[in-house]
Amino acid sequence: MSVGENKIAVTVSDITKITPLVTQFRFVRTDGEALPTFSGGAHTVVEMIDGAETRLNPYSLMSDPMDQTAYMISVRRDDQGRGGSLFMHQKVAVGDEMMISLPVNLFALDLRASKHLMIAGGIGITPFLSQIHELNAIAGTFELHYASQSAELAAFADDLMRRYSGKVHVYFDDLGQKIDLAALLEGQPLGTHVYVCGPKGMIDWVRKTAHDLGWPREAIHYEEFLAPQSGKPFEVTLAASNKVIQVGEHQSLLEAMEAADVDAPYLCRGGACGQCETNVIESDGEIIHRDHWLEDDDKKSGKKIMPCVSRFVGKTLVLDR
Amino acid sequence: MTLQFNDETFRDDYTFTNSQRAIDRFPFPFHEDSYMYSVNMEQHQGGPKGSVYENRFDVDEHYISEMKDRAQVLAEDPLRCQSLPHMNLAGWDLLELIMVSKSEDYPDLFELHRDGNNWHWINRPLGIEDKFVFLDNASLPYGPMEYITRQTQGDFAVLDQRDENLWLDAGMITTQADWSLDFDIGMNFFEWHAPVPKANEMGIFIRALKFLLNVQQGTPARRLNWTMTVNPLLDTSPENYHKWGVQKTGLTPQNVGSKQFLRVELQTFFRLPRSNGLVFPIRCYLIALEDIVTVPKWGRRLHRVLRDIPDELATYKGFIDNKPMIVDYLSKFDDGQPTSAGIWPEKDSEPELVV
User: Fold this and answer.
1) For chain A, which end, N or C, has fewer CB atoms within 10 Å of the first or last residue's CB respectively?
2) Which residues of A289-315 are buried (b: 16+ CB within 10 A; e: fewer)?
3) Does residue B155 sit at the A interface (CB-CB below 8 Å)?
């Protein structure tokens, strides 16, 4: 079963430029019905049909989970990426119909926490926006620390500062401002959980600092979706489906399987959830592991691959799919 | 559909009965002539018309009497319903799921009117009508989970999902197959399944957990489980074992057909969207052996399954002492003819019993 089977037909009802790099999209259901509720931190997978190519990219839902009239996502333009964000920025217009998945949450709040300490970097702000809505509805306590390159690029910062004065702290790299993480973590009341979403370096920094300060593992939460990267085209044999497929330069292995009508499971499409883990039957070449799901031993063994983000260079790759 | 509700008891004088309709739609749990544990999950997206799979929450002829029995259990032991503080939002999730499902699936029995957070709920069979504010606990006579599960057949385990595991942090458990919410509350998936024999070494729980963690919105799942119960007793709890355990010794070759019941659990799994929790409704269906054997396929198959079941499983399911008597009774309804695959009764195509 592919978990992404349950899709919702939506219409783009509004597009708002938030910063020079970030654009916000508002979706309503095409049939006019109410959208399903969701939990703060959930994402949806947006299907982008770009000519002959279909891309499926996950985006955090940033709107109020209690609001069933519309979903909102924000997309940061990535000029070096495979083209998903450029498609959203340049080709999607108000009134367009798109397919999105039902919400899935891999970055949920732990509601046992007495306080939720949120640390965001750049576009990593988006899951926190829906979480803050949720915490407001249930009278939860939060504090947000948000780092951005500059005031100009700090999406939603002004709005957050205005609405949650005293609970939101913003840091701008170009002004040399930096979160004093050790002091921040040490000053938290017992029962606080810390959440981080942002670039890999920031996630590693927060996890390590919290760990070194003795925070329990289950009180540290993070979300990092990798975007699949482009690479040299390669050929794969899918043994269970009895098919030989080509993976294009700007296509992921998972997308190539889907294009060949092979039913492959997935949830996050970003190397984090483990859902698409696939056994390697034969490999003559090198698997470029890019996920953070497989253990190092698994990666070295060459017996497993995460087709959402990982690629292959070499002569033969045969997968059990 | 006009449903006639039985006036019956699940204790003392045991007036519980299944109508012909209830027998015909009974969720018989064996798809072949033998049984072993498996992660026998399938999607819960409806099923044949009239079957217990048709609706998200099945309402049947036992509804009103089951709810009376639940109220009696709770009056004697309030700890059968518990919810840790962080599960309040999940309780509202469950209330919403059940109210929306029942009002859509049984519009003649249940009505839900929503104006923003101002909700109006009408439960005709139980004569309940309440107006309340969604997410405002003070506007209901009980907490949200307790309120709605006092009006819904089946036990409810409400699970929190965190640390790649599921935690039994809330529940309404009054019709259980010998396990205790008060004992298990706060445990994770592996802890509360620790007593089940054999399954752990088979790796069943790791696979089952992996499956459940990925039950998402829009894709609920279900499976059947079963055990054996003497007398149509819903509350076979450890707390009351001293009352019901002894009844197992009252079985005789003369009364085994009417006093020995097959107890089947329709277990379903729904993602709770607002809390990202998971609800695990465990709906209990009871049927006397003498009613099962009126379906030739089921009589043949149940005999073969119980005759061949490993002793560890018969012990775990609590009928090892009575197994010879039960198998002897059922053997009279097994003429050795083949059975068709699948759980459905196939009354029209399956051969009559040759005695």
Assistant:
1) N
2) bbbebbeeebbeeeebbbbbbbbbeee
3) no
